[in-house]
Amino acid sequence: MKSFVFSMVVFFVFFLLSSQVSADLISDTCKQTPSVNLCESTLRADPQSSKADVQGLALIAANKLVVEGTKTENEIKELIKKTKDQPLLDALKLCADKYNIIVHYDFPVAVEAIKKGNPKFAEDATVDAARASDKCAKGITSTTDLASSNKLVHDLDDIVLYIVRLLL
């Protein structure tokens, strides 16, 4: 009976410590990024993050980046259909070109590189995506919703970049 109680106590202590270590890994990792709060809320929203190592956290953030990038690309396409203002239309078309590359090339390369344990390729892809979203941002300041979506993509991209750099 005593050994059973002892085993249960050891199990619960181990369980609590492992949960605490995971929570600390998320906090410690996110403190290395420029958007600590966004990083923590993004990672903690995924139930797999509590069991993930740094590579797993990078993959979780990258997958969220793909989702938000795709939403932003769709938002750009919808605005192009509705916009009559030629300078804004030109800016939106530039954004559409940039997001086509970001969503269909840069992000998949980053995700695959993280999965395969090649952080350098992931770093290169996220840097390219950040530059592209910066170019998009210059012409869309008058469309606040799109500007906010683009900023979110840029901030998530930075988070992935900084986490990937921890793997180098």
Automatic annotation (TrEMBL):
Pfam families: PMEI. Keywords: Disulfide bond, Signal. It comes from the Eukaryota. The keyword Ligase does not apply. InterPro entries: C/VIF1, Invertase/methylesterase_inhib, PCW_Enzyme_Inhibitor, Pectinesterase_inhib_dom. SMART domains: PMEI. Residues 1-23 form the signal peptide. GO terms for molecular function: enzyme inhibitor activity. Residues 21-163 form the Pectinesterase inhibitor domain. Transmembrane segments: none annotated. The keyword Disulfide bond applies. Belongs to the PMEI family. This is Pectinesterase inhibitor domain-containing protein. It comes from Dipteronia sinensis.
